[in-house]
Amino acid sequence: MSLRLAVIALEVLPMLEEEARKREYAGVNQYSRGVQLVAQGSTGKSRDKAAELFGINRQYISDAKMIAQKAKRGRSKKKRD
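^ thats the sequence. predicted structure below, dont judge the formating
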């Protein structure tokens, strides 16, 4: 069950990573002053946020991401052959 949730969490992960990039680009952190260009969200790794959203261990998400990347490389390698 947890692995299935991890695979689903992989669908959400890019959105969380994009939010993190926007905050990073805007230079928004706990020391920022003045008007914030991007709403300050919670801090932490996107992987940890996804794990919390789905109620699973963060390692499941890391493992699922690694498996998906290896599968993608395997498919692209087969296409070249």
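Residues 11 and 55 are 15 Å apart (CA to CA).
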